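Incident log, support desk, overnight shift.

02:14 A customer reports that sequence design results differ from what the structure should imply. Their input is reproduced verbatim below. On-call engineer (initials T.W.) acknowledged and began investigating.
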């Protein structure tokens, strides 16, 4: 909000003027203002900060990967329990997982199952 920034700047400058007058004991400066500027750190400090941020991001990424693997393991365990309780469901899911274009399913044995796709 431009008005909020303008109000903030005006309040900072008013307070800054009062502080300057208080510190120096009088009005020795005409309308002093406080200017916001960017901070420039020495290259080695800047590099250290960037390195620390990068390492923290790597740790966060590794933690996310671990959580994802744990969820996938729980999902697989639940699927397996479901297939143990419903072997027909497992067979149905196998058929649905076959790539398109396959016309015969022969799962290693004695007879083939025509798919009729």
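02:41 Re-run completed on a clean worker. Output:
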């Amino acid at each position: 909000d431009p008005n909020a920034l303008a109000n903030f700047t005006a309040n900072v400058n008013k307070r800054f003027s009062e502080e300057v007058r208080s510190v120096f004991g009088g009005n020795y400066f005409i309308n002093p203002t406080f200017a916001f500027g960017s901070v420039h750190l020495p290259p080695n400090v800047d590099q250290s900060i960037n390195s620390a941020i990068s390492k923290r991001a790597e740790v966060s990424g590794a933690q996310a990967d671990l959580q994802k693997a744990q969820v996938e393991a729980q999902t697989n365990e639940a699927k397996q329990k479901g297939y143990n309780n419903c072997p027909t469901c497992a067979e149905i899911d196998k058929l649905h997982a076959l790539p398109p274009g396959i016309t015969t399913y022969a799962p290693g044995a004695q007879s083939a199952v025509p798919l009729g796709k």
